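User: Structure tokens for this complex, please. No commentary.
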Amino acid sequence: MTEHLEAGAYNFAYLDEQTKRMIRRAILKGIAVPGYQVPFASREMPMPYGWGTGGVQVTAACLVPEDRLKVIDQGADDTTNAVSIRRFFQRTAGVAVTEATPEATVIQTRHRIPETPLKQGQILVYQVPIPEPLRFLEPRETETRKMHELEEYGLMHVKLYEDIARHGQIATSYAYPVRVEGRYVMDPSPIPKFDNPKLSGNPAIQLFGAGREQRIYALPPWTKAESLDFDDHPFETSKAPHDCDLCGAKDSYLDEVITDDAGGRMFVCSDTDFCAGRRARGMKGRLWAPKPEGVA
Amino acid sequence: MYVAVKGGERAIDNAHQWLAEERRGDPAIPELTIPQIREQMKLAVNRVMAEGSLYDPDLAALAIKQARGDLIEAVFLIRAYRTTLPRLAASRPVDTGAMAVDRRISATFKDLPGGQVLGPTFDYTHRLLDFALMAEGDAPLPQARPIEAPPSPFVGEGWGGGAPRMPHVTGFLNRDGLIETAEPGDATPPDLTREPMELPADRALRLQALTRGDEGFVLSMAYSTQRGYGRTHAFVGELRIGTVAVEVDIPELGFAVEIGEIELTECETVNQFKGSKTEPPQFTRGYGLVMGQSERKAIAMSLVDRALRWQELGEDFTGAPAQDEEFVLMHCDNIQATGFLEHIKLPHYVDFQAELELVRKLRAEVQAMQEAAE
Amino acid sequence: MIAASDALAGGFTEAPLQSARAFREILEAMARPGTIRRVQGASPPPPLSVAAGVALLVLTDPTTRLHLAGRADCADVRHWVAFHIGAPLAAAEDADFAVGTWDALHPVSRFRIGQPDYPDRSATLIVECDRLAPHGPALTGPGIETATWLNLPETAAFRANRALFPLGFDTLFTAGDRIAGLPRSTRVENI
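Assistant:
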């Protein structure tokens, strides 16, 4: 029973050892069948379903005491849910934390892939709300499981093609489905399609955890993940047609910030570490001014 | 100049501090104690135990206190705690036939062996606010008038020494072959809390999901069957509430030891009959079993259980929500539901921005086409 | 024959931390087929290697069926497994995990390859080797940038296994404290 919770203390990374073994087995099967959603007996975590319980369980199963953990939500390290999850692991695993993408060994994310390219030795853990890419076309798990088994992805193509017929282009801007190594169609979690190219051929291990839906899936390093498209309507990324107003970056994904009630707005990098790093190296955007003295 | 919003950590701390103050309320009012909640908010405690899947009245009371009376939040606290508990043993199946009943009623027979026992029920109370309860201090309790116990009706088997047994109404029907036989099975039931939900589910798994499912959801599903969405013509064959012993096999001793007792509510419905040219007509059953005194939930559960059995009983699928196993099982858990529902208040700047750009682009294209046409 | 008390030794002394570190190595091994990693912390009875012992401690428990093949199926190993892991022993056809030399595991077509709708329900083989070296048939596929090489005990069985994809078993190779992975997704050069 030494591995169990003592009064007032947590097992390393909160989960009991048997639970971690179960999750670890699921992760390895996910690695072995890239893009296939492995069912796992997701546990009830001390945070709500839909708030990253899948990602938290995957991270807990992967963490070692020597890790440096980064947690981002919407690309930012300081959003409240990222703060809350980071704190959870500081408390229960005692790991070091960082905001710097290159220094992190494990990165848990919601809705973004960092702008700074990842590298070998890093693990990117995605929080996934609805892991089933076919769910919005077919609500029944019993049906979608069959569709994956038989590689019946026609429905998805029909949906995308209807978009083109109606709007002249594919009207999916985030959670844009990918085909993994020519086999499973996979939901990349609600990242903007801007991030889709980073899924493919990435040197890091990418793990996806959906707690409420009880699924884990994975992209091993260098795995091919092609965004679905058509010959005459190839996949395109998109972002706001602006530069970052703080660091001047031309090629990063931007958040739009409303600055007044007269239509004023600015665009800033959603990846706060990337943006701060550029500013620290002296790069400036249209509206950047250092904080005046005395302002906290 | 723009300063990005910072200080998430401090904001969280401050919010939690404020929450703690709000939980306590006016400090001039004495603080609720756990025993007070356990004893005087017992039905809330029961609901938290049932949906939290953990039989511990003190912890459920604590959860209610901590959750400021938000029962779903309290269920969540119990579920999260429960996950961390080691599983030391599995009990033997509890024997509701040996239940020490506080309440036992049948809607199908006017009288029956063991009698109708009303017990502590809201039934037949007139729902008039009792202003006496507003007064400080204990209101005098009405005295229960003793009823002369009828002579024991039990004859023959089932009443031989040992603990008195309270036979099930469905057992009486079964004696005449009037109701389907529920065959006992030795298969280890699947465990919803340790294995991912797999569909199609067997009845044991469905019942597990329903017994910890949200009372409101299960109630509405049951109600919908009564109104015709998967109607099953249910009669409450029997509803019983009381305590049963929990026994655990001790392999070293070679026999089972009683480790405690729990309060349960059990409902068996007698439903529309089925039959064919070869099989004489028989009533069918629905079953509900819930921790604590939770009779609304137990009755509702038995109706939904019965509606979900359409396939096994050779009935038609009418498209009713309560017949749809995947729909019911995937949506009855209020902890899953509330988490996912409430997560949409988390930041979604990134995906919203992606949609915003797409809509702007599509609008610009439409506008350009219109201008070109003019 | 070791004394029964020896079965009590050889497990992790600090399970949460040791299994976390070891899993991370196993994850890297499986995610990057052909790379050879080191693990530590277990000293299982012979003939099991340290790495095989670690893999068993990290991945198996009373909920997984374990097949002991050939010389691995001995009283010492059985006692050790019973005490430290509690995995029920099973025939090859029913196993979630199997451990033994390549010869002892043969024919590997006995092992579970998953179901078309649940390809994850397949066996993981822990193949005990004399040594692991980055020479041998070229490996390509997910987890591999261009190619890696590993001294596989044979190629035909792994090529046949790959042909079943997404079904198939997954393999860990162990030698001493070294471990390497070969998931079913890896394409093995025909030599």
